[in-house]
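Private note to self, pasted from the team thread so I don't lose it. Backbone tokens:
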């Protein structure tokens, strides 16, 4: 890189802050508060005046939807839309001289929608759905740009360490705001608020946190020089990013281990993201926990996940990243089976399960990204990380769809949870077929290894 070491270090510190910024929305809104709160608002609209035994449905574009499945279907719709847009945004990011501007554009649109969730009340479930779609899609688009910026702020040898520090900053930022919101939701009267308004204010705080702290990377990354891009006289047409995307996808056939890993990751990460997304509504509706108890649970998961990433890193040094990730998938199967067996109201047992989730969540996320970085062909890091981000954030829709459908058909979240076991089993089988050594050789040579 042509930047000085001091300039690069400052830009890198600014880049870390975006994980700190967006993780507040991921933890407070996506993981904890939105799904249970949207379920309450939807049930209120479907059955005015009925607190229990509501069997009525909502009409969403003419389709009957159970109030308890609305949040899950919203997540499904958001991730499907993201899956369509992410690869093109990744190609656009590769052709943009100033990626930080693109990052800020997506982040601030999402943060604005997240902040506006303070207006979701009464029976306005439709407003919650629209704002959630905008916020989640904007988040996923910003994350693919953020991953591409990793290449700009670090060299190949230091990329794993820089990426890990970003993850750590995200866990810490999410933990801190969630802790503050826990105080608010646990004792709303202390702050002169009702229980519902405490949730609404907490949702808005996540959007404000996301938007305000995004200023740091957008301003700090301006120090990086403009990236070289193809001659604009040749590649000015709107179809240029599409052509680049096509070239990248065609190139996957020359790197079969990358493709195998992406397929495996797509499947097992779908299961992970669904467990995370559905955990709050499962805890509230199936196990009877309050918002304060759910916030406490996620706080514990966030704290342990940081330590889990470090512990899995040590295990990977001894057993290898692939074996350690496979061990993590076995633990995810244990998590699902244990969650199925948790009795209603058994909060202590639920917290013990949260510790296990934290260990395996931090470990599998950190090592999956690290393992993929070893398989990426030299000189095409940004393009391939775009595909990785699509697998991580933008295509995790089937799990939430399965979970929502099974919950609606059976009237219980427990069988819906068991249905997710298939994602971890199939993902593990696909991961076993990845030849890491062959993939590393391909990444270094740019061609298929000689057998």
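Design output:
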């Amino acid at each position: 890189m042509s930047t000085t070491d001091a300039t690069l270090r400052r830009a890198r510190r600014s880049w870390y802050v975006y994980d700190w910024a967006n993780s507040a929305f991921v933890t407070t809104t996506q993981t904890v508060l939105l799904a249970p709160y949207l379920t309450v608002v939807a049930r209120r609209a479907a059955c005015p005046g009925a607190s229990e035994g509501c069997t009525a449905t909502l009409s969403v574009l003419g389709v009957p939807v159970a109030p308890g499945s609305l949040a899950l279907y919203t997540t499904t719709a958001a991730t499907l839309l993201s899956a369509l847009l992410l690869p093109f945004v990744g190609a656009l990011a590769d052709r943009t001289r100033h990626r930080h501007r693109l990052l800020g554009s997506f982040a601030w649109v999402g943060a604005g929608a997240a902040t506006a969730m303070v207006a979701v009340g009464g029976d306005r479930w439709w407003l919650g759905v629209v704002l959630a779609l905008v916020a989640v899609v904007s988040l996923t688009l910003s994350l693919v740009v953020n991953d591409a910026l990793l290449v700009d702020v670090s060299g190949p040898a230091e990329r794993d360490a820089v990426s890990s520090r970003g993850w750590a900053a995200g866990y810490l930022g999410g933990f801190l705001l969630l802790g503050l919101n826990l105080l608010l939701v646990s004792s709303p009267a202390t702050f002169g608020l009702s229980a519902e308004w405490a949730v609404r204010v907490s949702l808005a705080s996540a959007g404000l946190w996301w938007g305000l702290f995004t200023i740091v990377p957008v301003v700090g990354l301006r120090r990086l020089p403009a990236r070289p891009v193809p001659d604009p006289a040749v590649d000015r047409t709107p179809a240029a990013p599409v052509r680049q995307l096509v070239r990248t996808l065609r190139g996957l056939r020359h790197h079969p281990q990358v493709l195998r890993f992406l397929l495996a990751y797509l499947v097992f990460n779908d299961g992970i993201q669904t467990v995370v997304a559905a955990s709050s509504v499962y805890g509230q509706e199936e196990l009877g926990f309050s918002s304060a108890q759910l916030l406490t649970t996620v706080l514990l998961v966030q704290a342990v996940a940081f330590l889990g990433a470090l512990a899995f890193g040590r295990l990977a040094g001894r057993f290898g990243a692939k074996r350690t990730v496979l061990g993590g998938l076995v633990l995810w199967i244990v998590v699902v089976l244990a969650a199925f067996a948790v009795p209603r109201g058994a909060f202590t047992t639920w917290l013990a399960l949260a510790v296990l989730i934290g260990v395996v969540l931090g470990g599998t996320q950190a090592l999956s990204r690290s393992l993929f970085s070893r398989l990426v062909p030299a000189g095409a890091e940004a393009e391939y990380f775009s595909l990785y981000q699509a697998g991580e954030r933008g295509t995790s829709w089937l799990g939430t769809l399965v979970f929502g459908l099974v919950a609606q058909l059976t009237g219980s979240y427990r069988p819906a949870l068991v249905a997710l076991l298939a994602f971890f089993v199939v993902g593990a089988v696909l991961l076993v077929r990845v030849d890491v050594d062959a993939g590393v050789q391909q990444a270094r040579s740019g061609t298929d290894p000689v057998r």
